[in-house]
Specification:
By secondary structure, the chain is α/β, with parallel strands linked by helices. It is built from seven helices and seven strands. The two termini are 24 Å apart.
Length: 183
Protein backbone atom coordinates (compact mmCIF):
# COMPACT_ATOMS: atom_id res chain seq x y z
CA UNK A 1 0.00 0.00 0.00
CA UNK A 2 1.22 3.49 -0.80
CA UNK A 3 2.70 5.14 2.31
CA UNK A 4 0.77 8.35 1.63
CA UNK A 5 -2.57 6.58 1.88
CA UNK A 6 -4.38 7.39 5.10
CA UNK A 7 -5.62 4.38 7.04
CA UNK A 8 -7.82 3.77 10.03
CA UNK A 9 -4.80 3.21 12.30
CA UNK A 10 -5.50 4.23 15.85
CA UNK A 11 -9.24 3.72 15.43
CA UNK A 12 -9.64 0.65 17.63
CA UNK A 13 -13.22 -0.28 18.38
CA UNK A 14 -14.55 0.94 15.07
CA UNK A 15 -17.52 -1.14 13.90
CA UNK A 16 -16.02 -2.56 10.71
CA UNK A 17 -15.97 -6.13 9.46
CA UNK A 18 -15.10 -8.07 6.35
CA UNK A 19 -16.40 -11.37 5.11
CA UNK A 20 -13.25 -13.22 4.11
CA UNK A 21 -13.62 -15.26 0.95
CA UNK A 22 -11.17 -17.70 -0.58
CA UNK A 23 -13.28 -18.33 -3.67
CA UNK A 24 -14.58 -15.61 -6.02
CA UNK A 25 -18.26 -14.78 -5.65
CA UNK A 26 -18.88 -16.88 -2.52
CA UNK A 27 -19.86 -13.93 -0.33
CA UNK A 28 -21.85 -11.82 -2.80
CA UNK A 29 -25.23 -13.49 -2.29
CA UNK A 30 -24.61 -13.81 1.43
CA UNK A 31 -23.90 -10.09 1.76
CA UNK A 32 -26.99 -9.13 -0.25
CA UNK A 33 -29.26 -11.53 1.66
CA UNK A 34 -27.96 -10.22 4.99
CA UNK A 35 -28.51 -6.60 3.94
CA UNK A 36 -32.06 -7.25 2.76
CA UNK A 37 -32.89 -9.31 5.88
CA UNK A 38 -31.79 -6.41 8.10
CA UNK A 39 -33.79 -3.96 6.00
CA UNK A 40 -36.84 -6.23 6.32
CA UNK A 41 -36.41 -6.00 10.11
CA UNK A 42 -36.51 -2.21 9.88
CA UNK A 43 -32.79 -1.46 10.02
CA UNK A 44 -31.43 1.40 7.91
CA UNK A 45 -28.97 -0.46 5.69
CA UNK A 46 -27.46 1.47 2.78
CA UNK A 47 -24.74 0.68 0.33
CA UNK A 48 -23.68 -1.46 -2.58
CA UNK A 49 -23.84 -5.17 -3.28
CA UNK A 50 -22.25 -6.95 -6.19
CA UNK A 51 -24.19 -9.15 -8.59
CA UNK A 52 -23.16 -11.37 -11.45
CA UNK A 53 -26.39 -12.32 -13.26
CA UNK A 54 -24.80 -14.89 -15.57
CA UNK A 55 -21.64 -16.92 -15.96
CA UNK A 56 -19.80 -14.19 -17.89
CA UNK A 57 -17.95 -12.91 -14.80
CA UNK A 58 -16.65 -9.53 -15.93
CA UNK A 59 -19.13 -8.72 -18.67
CA UNK A 60 -22.20 -8.93 -16.43
CA UNK A 61 -20.93 -7.91 -12.99
CA UNK A 62 -22.67 -4.85 -11.56
CA UNK A 63 -22.83 -2.93 -8.31
CA UNK A 64 -26.38 -2.40 -7.10
CA UNK A 65 -27.52 0.45 -4.85
CA UNK A 66 -29.58 -1.14 -2.05
CA UNK A 67 -31.95 1.85 -2.01
CA UNK A 68 -32.51 2.99 -5.58
CA UNK A 69 -31.58 -0.34 -7.18
CA UNK A 70 -29.45 1.67 -9.60
CA UNK A 71 -26.91 -0.53 -11.35
CA UNK A 72 -23.29 0.42 -11.95
CA UNK A 73 -21.25 -1.76 -14.36
CA UNK A 74 -18.10 -2.89 -12.59
CA UNK A 75 -15.95 -3.76 -15.61
CA UNK A 76 -15.19 -2.21 -18.98
CA UNK A 77 -15.27 -4.41 -22.04
CA UNK A 78 -11.61 -4.42 -23.08
CA UNK A 79 -11.99 -7.21 -25.64
CA UNK A 80 -11.14 -10.88 -25.55
CA UNK A 81 -7.38 -10.42 -25.88
CA UNK A 82 -7.04 -8.09 -22.90
CA UNK A 83 -5.18 -9.23 -19.80
CA UNK A 84 -5.89 -6.00 -17.90
CA UNK A 85 -8.13 -5.90 -14.85
CA UNK A 86 -10.71 -3.78 -16.65
CA UNK A 87 -12.40 -2.29 -13.58
CA UNK A 88 -14.48 0.69 -14.67
CA UNK A 89 -13.18 3.35 -12.27
CA UNK A 90 -15.64 5.93 -13.60
CA UNK A 91 -18.54 3.66 -12.71
CA UNK A 92 -17.04 2.92 -9.28
CA UNK A 93 -16.67 6.67 -8.70
CA UNK A 94 -20.35 7.15 -9.55
CA UNK A 95 -21.29 4.31 -7.20
CA UNK A 96 -19.28 5.89 -4.38
CA UNK A 97 -22.10 8.41 -3.97
CA UNK A 98 -24.17 5.61 -2.48
CA UNK A 99 -21.70 5.27 0.41
CA UNK A 100 -21.56 9.05 0.87
CA UNK A 101 -25.36 8.97 1.21
CA UNK A 102 -25.05 6.22 3.85
CA UNK A 103 -22.69 8.53 5.73
CA UNK A 104 -25.02 11.55 5.48
CA UNK A 105 -28.04 9.53 6.57
CA UNK A 106 -26.18 7.84 9.46
CA UNK A 107 -27.05 4.32 8.35
CA UNK A 108 -27.39 1.54 10.90
CA UNK A 109 -25.11 -0.41 8.57
CA UNK A 110 -23.23 0.58 5.42
CA UNK A 111 -22.40 -2.12 2.89
CA UNK A 112 -19.43 -1.79 0.56
CA UNK A 113 -19.41 -4.61 -1.97
CA UNK A 114 -15.67 -5.16 -1.80
CA UNK A 115 -12.32 -4.09 -0.46
CA UNK A 116 -10.17 -5.08 -3.42
CA UNK A 117 -7.47 -3.99 -5.83
CA UNK A 118 -8.52 -0.35 -6.05
CA UNK A 119 -9.12 0.11 -2.34
CA UNK A 120 -5.78 -1.54 -1.52
CA UNK A 121 -4.05 1.37 -3.28
CA UNK A 122 -6.33 4.04 -1.81
CA UNK A 123 -8.70 4.35 -4.77
CA UNK A 124 -12.14 2.98 -5.54
CA UNK A 125 -14.33 3.19 -2.44
CA UNK A 126 -11.43 3.66 0.01
CA UNK A 127 -12.16 7.31 0.91
CA UNK A 128 -15.84 6.60 1.54
CA UNK A 129 -15.02 3.54 3.63
CA UNK A 130 -12.59 5.57 5.76
CA UNK A 131 -15.17 8.34 6.18
CA UNK A 132 -17.75 5.82 7.40
CA UNK A 133 -15.24 4.30 9.82
CA UNK A 134 -14.19 7.71 11.15
CA UNK A 135 -17.84 8.49 11.93
CA UNK A 136 -18.19 5.05 13.55
CA UNK A 137 -20.96 4.01 11.18
CA UNK A 138 -20.93 0.20 11.04
CA UNK A 139 -19.39 -0.99 7.79
CA UNK A 140 -19.44 -4.46 6.27
CA UNK A 141 -17.55 -5.52 3.17
CA UNK A 142 -15.99 -8.54 1.47
CA UNK A 143 -12.26 -9.17 1.23
CA UNK A 144 -10.67 -11.87 -0.91
CA UNK A 145 -7.70 -13.55 0.77
CA UNK A 146 -5.10 -11.95 -1.59
CA UNK A 147 -6.12 -8.53 -0.17
CA UNK A 148 -6.32 -9.56 3.48
CA UNK A 149 -2.99 -7.99 4.49
CA UNK A 150 -3.98 -4.76 2.70
CA UNK A 151 -7.31 -4.82 4.58
CA UNK A 152 -5.55 -5.23 7.90
CA UNK A 153 -3.29 -2.26 7.16
CA UNK A 154 -6.22 -0.20 5.90
CA UNK A 155 -8.20 -0.74 9.11
CA UNK A 156 -5.18 -0.50 11.36
CA UNK A 157 -6.03 -4.00 12.57
CA UNK A 158 -9.43 -2.83 13.78
CA UNK A 159 -11.46 -4.79 11.22
CA UNK A 160 -13.25 -7.93 12.37
CA UNK A 161 -12.78 -10.88 10.02
CA UNK A 162 -15.91 -12.98 9.47
CA UNK A 163 -16.41 -16.38 7.92
CA UNK A 164 -18.77 -16.42 4.92
CA UNK A 165 -21.57 -17.67 7.16
CA UNK A 166 -24.94 -16.04 7.96
CA UNK A 167 -24.60 -16.79 11.67
CA UNK A 168 -21.23 -15.02 11.81
CA UNK A 169 -22.76 -11.91 10.26
CA UNK A 170 -25.76 -12.00 12.60
CA UNK A 171 -23.51 -12.42 15.67
CA UNK A 172 -21.29 -9.52 14.61
CA UNK A 173 -24.23 -7.18 14.00
CA UNK A 174 -25.97 -8.27 17.20
CA UNK A 175 -22.75 -7.46 19.06
CA UNK A 176 -22.81 -3.97 17.61
CA UNK A 177 -26.35 -3.45 18.81
CA UNK A 178 -25.39 -4.70 22.28
CA UNK A 179 -22.17 -2.72 22.36
CA UNK A 180 -19.88 -5.75 22.44
CA UNK A 181 -16.99 -6.53 20.12
CA UNK A 182 -17.14 -9.98 18.45
CA UNK A 183 -13.56 -10.47 17.32
Amino acid sequence: MNASIKTAAGMQGIPVAAIIQDERGVADDLLAEFAFALRHRGRRVHGLVQQRPDSQWKASTVLIDLDARERFPLFQNLGTGSVSCGIDETSVAAASGVLRRALREKADLAIANRFGALEAIGRGLAAEMLALMSERIPLLTVVATPYLDDWRRFTGGAGVQLAPDPQALEAWFAGLEQGTDHR
